[in-house]
Amino acid sequence: MTTEIKDSGTVEAADGHGLGRAYFERAAGFVLEVIERNLPVFRDTYPAPASEGNVYPGIGNIEWTSSFWTGMLWLAYDLTGEAKYREAAEYQLASYKQRIEEQIETETHDLGFLYSLSAVAEYRLTGNETAKGTALQAADLLAARYFPKAGIIQAWGDLSDPEQCGRMIIDCLMNLPLLYWASEVTGETRYAEYAKTHVAQAAKYLVRPDDTSYHTYYMDVETGAPKYGNTHQGYADDSCWARGQAWGMYGFLLSYLYTGDKSLVGLSKRLTDYFLTRLPEDGVVYWDLVFTEGTEQEKDSSASAIAVCGMLELTKHLPLGDPDKRRYEDLALELLAALGRRYTTADLPGSNGVLKHAVYNKPRGMGIDECNLWGDYYYFEALVRVLKNWKPYW
Question: Which of 6, 181, 273, 366 could form a disulfide with 361 if both were Cys (CB 3.0 to 4.6 A apart)?
Answer without folding.
Answer: 366
